[in-house]
């Protein structure tokens, strides 16, 4: 059994099954209860991975197809805190037999977050394409049920022992995390696009708004403007603007729009707080 550590969570990535012909023969071989006790004893949460298929997506580990309820009860008896449930190698069984093809439409009934794209890759184009696909389902996100990416529970899929300082700084930015964890629970959307320049925005609690100015250009600095009419503010509203990357409140107050210059392959992120 292989265990991968993530920030605050230990995820069991390999579980062996005894797949017999009867339900009583389908039992978990790994001593999950001992693992759970060990992990919880370290003050961490325990996550586990399975799939609604004959095998998981790696094609080497048996899945839970036909034994979903039994395995769920086993995970619960171990005290598992988090389950990632994939769908691969299901012999042609349609997801619609268990729910619509798009989990954003029904996932909140059975889980707290869901993936609506294929796996993200470690490159700029993959990251942005996933954000675009995710944004289509923004209106379905709500407290307790999230599209995995914006506004969703934060999960770091890397070896935290080898993170660069830049990565640590990004992932530990408490002001950005606060936007992600805002109690209003409204996922931001793309509200304006001009070529490869974009404005994303979403409402926050206490009548605030978060705004992202995104420059997709690979080699050009660009001026990007967020208009109040696009981000849900009355044109006459005066706001103070907090830069979440620089951790400072801009001296100037803004009304009607906010404009800034953004470096290529970069973004600026603000929280706007109405003051008048």
TrEMBL record:
Signal listed as a keyword: yes
SUPFAM superfamilies per the UniProt record, alphabetical: (Trans)glycosidases (SSF51445), Glycosyl hydrolase domain (SSF51011)
Molecular-function GO terms, alphabetical: alpha-galactosidase activity
Domain called Alpha galactosidase C-terminal: residue spans: 195-272
Keyword tags: Disulfide bond, Glycosidase, Hydrolase, Signal
A GO biological-process term: carbohydrate metabolic process
A GO term from the CC aspect: plant-type cell wall
The protein's Enzyme Commission number: 3.2.1.22
Domain of life of the native organism: Eukaryota
Signal peptide extent: 1-22
Keyword Transferase: no
Pfam families registered for this protein in UniProt: Melibiase_2, Melibiase_C
Protein name: Alpha-galactosidase
